Structures are given as C-alpha cells and as structure tokens.
Here is the input.
Amino acid sequence: MEQKNCTKCGQQFEVTGEDLKFYEKISPVFNGQNYLVPAPTLCSDCRWQRRLSFRNERNFYKRKCDLCQKDLISIYSPDKPYKIYCPECYWSDKWNPMDYGQDFDFSRPFSEQFNELFTKTPQLSLIRIQCENCDYVHDASDLKNCYLVFDGDGSRDCMYGQTFAQLSDCTDFFQLFSSELCYECTNCIKLYNCRFCFSSQNCSDSSFLRDCIGCQNCFGCVNLVQQKYHIFNKQVSIEEYENFIRNFNNGSYSALIKMKEKVYDFWKTLPVKYMHGIKNEEVSGDFIYSSKNAQKCYDCISLQDCKYCQDVNGGAKDSQDFNIWGLETELVYECSCIGTGAQRLISGYYVGFRASEILYSTFCMKNVMSLFGCASLHHKKYCILNKQYTQEEYEAIVPKIIEHMKKTGEWGEFFSASISAFGYNETEANDYFPLTKEPALKKGFNWSDYNSPAPVVERVVTKEFMLQLPDNIKEIPDEIINWAFTCQKSGKLFRIVKKELDYYRKNNLPLPRLHPDERHKERIALRNPRILYDRNCMKCGAEIKTTYSPDRPEIIYCEVCYLKEVY
Here is the structure.
C-alpha cells in the first residue's frame, strides 16, 4: 500500500496493491509493450469532482444552430466559442468530423491540442433520443410530454426531475424509478400516488415515508414493511387515517412547511441502516444494489469488482473512477458517461455502444474502436485527433504520444478541468462540491459569468411580494403563468408554466417558492454526503463504514441489527 498526498486538496489517500494491479490491467499494450497507467495524483473525491466539472446537466440557454441557423435550446451558452448544432444537423451527413482532424504536435501538451479540436468540431446542443414534445430535456431517451427533466428514459408527462426511468405523471423527483403519480420523491422505486417519500419501494397512496417497503395509506412513517393505515408509525383505523389526511390541508404552503419539520424530526428518532442497499456482497458506500466487491461506490446497481464509482448502473465490471451510465461496461478508468458494451476506456466522456480501446476521447459513439484524442466520431477506428491512420501507423504513433504525455504529467489523468466546456457553476461538480468564483478559479476550474436575458413577462414578482402570495393553491390566480418569480433563496427568476399550475391544482399541492435548482438541492440534501466514516453500530457495537458522520443525531445500526428491528 502506498500513501500519497492529493496535489489538489492536500489530503492523504492510499493506493493499494489491488489498485496497482488494476492500473496494470487497464494499461494499453502496443507491439507487445505495456504502457503502464501510473497511480493517480488526486484523491478519489478530487478525481470525481474533476469529472463532474465537465457535466452541465441542468442549465439551458437559447441560441442558434451554427449550421441551419434555427433557434434552439442548448447546454452551451451563446458566449462560448463552440460550434453548436441542433440534433437534426448534428446527426446529418451535412458535415464530417474528420474535416477537423489535425496532426499531433509533440512540442505542446495534449490537453491544449485536444481543446483546439473540441472547440472547432461541432457539438450537439442537447442529447435527446426519440423524445416527443420535450424541448427542455437533456441526456434523455424515449420521453413524451416532459419538461425540465434530465438523465432519464422511458417516461411520460414528467416535470422537474433528474436520474429516472419508467415514470408517468411525476414531478420534482431525483433517483426515481418505475413509479406513477409521485411528487417530491427521492431514491425510490415502484411507487404509486406518493408524495415526499425517501428511500422507499413498492408503496402506494402514502406521504412522507422513509425506508418503507410495501406500504399503503401511510403518513410520516419510517422502517415499515407491508403495513397499511399508519400515521407516524402508529396503527390507526381507516376512518382516523382519512380524517387526518382530510384535515391536513396540503394545499397550504405554510401547513406543508410545518409538517415537513415535524416529519423530519420524527424520522430522526428511529434507527437507520448504516447504508442503503440490498443483495450486496463486500460493498461500501451508499445506495448500492445487487453488487459484489464494490468499494466506495454510490448510487450504483449491479457492479462487480469496481471502486470509486458513482451513478453507474447495469452491469459494470472491473472498473474504477467511473461515473454515470455503465450498461454492460468493463475495464473503464477515469471516465464519465460510458455505456452499452463499452470496454477498455481511459479518460473518456460520452463514449458508448460497443466502443473499445478508446483513449482520451469525447462524444464518440456507435461502433468506434482504437481512437486517441478524438471528438464526435462515429463508425471510425485508428484515428488520432480526428485524423485517420492505418492500424500500423496508429500503433506506432500512440505510444509516442503516451511517452510525451508522461513528460507533461497528463498520462493516466482525466482531461484537465481547464478545458471543460462549462463554468464550474454550471456543472454538477457544484452540487456536490460547492465553490464560489474565486476558490473555483484558484483550483483550476472555469467559471461562467453569462446571464441569460430576463424572461419577457407581464410582471416580475419580487422576494418581498412572494411572501404576500396566497398561501393556498386554491387562491392562486390564473395569471401567474405570465409572471416571473424571484426565488427566495437564490434570487434567480423562475416561471410556473400552465401544465405545472394545472398539476398543483389537480393534486392540491402548494405553489413552490423556490427555483427548480434550489428544489433539486433540497432533494440532494436529504441524502448524506458521499463520505465514509468508521463507526460502530449503536446497538451491538459492530464496526461499520457509513456516510453518517459521528456528529449526526441519527441512530445508526448495522445490517443485522437493523433487520431485527424492522422485521
């Protein structure tokens, strides 16, 4: 085991013998020689932060397609220097990414040359596949009638959510799957007509559940399994339950805020399992399911022999420092958004669909192999910086580039944060590692000062006037869809669209007072930070690794004690 100091944050981190074996396994081989990937210079958190700094998931801008000149919605703001194409132009035969190819210059750093290539090669405005009536969605497929949702597929009539699949008529959610008629639910699966639920599954007609399974008509409950008609974990009659729900006026904003405080205080009085997850063997992290030998991983499903992975689902194997997607992937290192059969990748971003032997490339999809430093290529192999080579030429030049990158300190590291297409404040990195402008710039990240034009509306509702809005949704006037509201926390303007107002009225839900981004932050805040602590079970004393820090008020049990408590 080797102890190293992170060159970014200064914290000490370890590189184990197993890590070194993995770096050797992932290292490319050319002409019988293994070009070893070195141990990382950054700790795992700083490596993850760097990858997230390339991912703008939620910020949209209006601009024009640089090919057809039509108006479009894009994740790239108009002040950025990139060529941005609408999906129709990007996937057409009207342009060829090989036209932007360039020779490798051994007198300059790789990242500098790759940034030049990426800047001049057209990029896709938004990632949408087979979506209908979904102008404001990104990183999504097979959606219909959705608005401001991100990173999902197979869903209908949803608004304001992220990371999801197979939903219908759901609003304000995060990590929600196979559910219908749900509002403000986080890390849940198979819910029906539920509100404000967290880490629960197979529940229906319920509100404010935490860690519940198979419950119906329950309110404010924790750790219940296969129960009906409970209020704050107490059995009540059907009549008592119906009267309680009737008296709780959840169309009132003030009543909802008071109830949230009461529920969250109650939640803290009952034990929680040290981590969320089932069907695991030798795992550490949180929200891990059906995985084996997955260490320090979060929000992952079906991993095997993986480490430092986040939001990876669908059968990833033998991979490290990898976040997002992961369907049937193997031997992936320092990558983001990799999936569907991709294997043997180092430092890739949005690469997939049976891609193999890809090094330092972005947005290369559909039958690609043996690429180095390429952008937006499809159905290609043996290319360097988007220039075509023979197999013999490729296998002769790439080793020289690797040796060059070893001298510049770039080999084995993810792309430099300085060449991200986005400001740190536009990316998911700011969700998990919040920074203001000066500290972000000092750490080598970019920053965006671009402000979108104010919406053209009849009226801008100030923070002060927000406090004077009718408390109950029944008293909210129709004309609010023509107003812009000032978020009480961030000061950002946001609007309420007609479909959204209709949803609140139909479900007797109060009008939100916060910008959608702030509501998203509140859902993230329900989950623990992705940091592991060594603690002891508060019942039997067994040693555990948990995301609950020692100063937290919750009662933390190991899995054995928790299951005895619940079942």
Notes: The radius of gyration is 25 Å. Residues 151-273 form one domain. Residues 282 and 293 are 5 Å apart (CA to CA).
